[in-house]
């Protein structure tokens, strides 16, 4: 007795296997998209933190005619507290603050580390400076 195999059709098992592979790949793409969207959201929040700190520094400068030597001098009067980068969950800004020690006419504050590398942002970026505003690469 010889079994005749149908030509041009798929068995139920073949269809189930292909559907399984497709659903695993779909799940993988959805997860990757979610991780990337979350990284982008934390990056935008980090930029907002830097703008907030920059505004606090400019308020300080308006009153004292110079920028502070340390970022912590802004609290609690100019900004309530130094925010944390949501990508890092630790302080990344206090050590990332730099002011021109001679003239104190400029400052740069940045997110120290490479917490935004998953979306292609360089180490120690984003930055915010008095002179250039927000720099994002
Ligand atoms: Zn950050």
Low-pLDDT windows of residues: none
Helices and strands, in order, run as: HEEEE
Q: What ligands does this structure carry?
A: zinc ion
Mass-distribution shape: rod-shaped
Structural class: alpha+beta
Number of domains: 1
N- to C-terminal distance? 72 Å
Note the main sheet.
Answer: 4 strands, antiparallel
Helix content: 25-40%
Number of helices: 1
Q: pLDDT average, as an integer? A: 88
Strand line-up of the largest beta sheet: 1-2-3-4
Instruction: Evaluate the radius of gyration.
Output: 26 Å
Quick one: how many beta strands? 4
Q: Into which percentage range does the β-strand content fall?
A: 5-15%
Description of the structure:
There is one protein chain. The chain is an alpha+beta fold and 137 residues long. The chain has one domain (13-135). Helix content is 39%, strand content 9%. It contains one helix and four strands. It has one helix at residues 12-64, and strands at residues 97-99, 107-110, 127-129, 133-135. Strands 1-2-3-4 form a four-stranded antiparallel sheet, covered by helices on one side. A hairpin with a 3-residue loop joins strand 3 and strand 4. The longest helix is centred in the first third of the chain and has 53 residues, at 12-64. The protein is rod-shaped. The protein starts with 11 loop residues before the first helix and ends with a strand. The model has no long low-confidence stretch (mean pLDDT 88). The chain binds zinc ion. Zinc ion is lined by residues 46, 85, 87-88, 92, 111, 115-116.
């Amino acid at each position: 007795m010889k079994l005749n195999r149908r030509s041009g059709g798929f068995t139920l098992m073949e269809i189930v296997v292909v559907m399984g592979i497709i659903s695993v790949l779909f799940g993988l793409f959805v997860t990757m998209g979610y991780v990337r969207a979350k990284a982008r959201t934390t990056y935008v929040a980090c930029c907002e933190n830097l703008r907030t700190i920059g505004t606090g520094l400019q308020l300080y400068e308006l009153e004292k005619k110079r920028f502070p030597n340390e970022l912590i001098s802004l609290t609690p009067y100019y900004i309530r507290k130094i925010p944390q980068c949501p990508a890092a969950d630790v302080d990344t800004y206090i050590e990332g603050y730099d002011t021109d020690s001679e003239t104190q006419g400029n400052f740069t504050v940045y997110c120290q580390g490479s917490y935004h590398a998953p979306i292609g942002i360089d180490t120690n970026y984003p930055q915010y400076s008095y002179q250039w505003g927000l720099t994002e690469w």
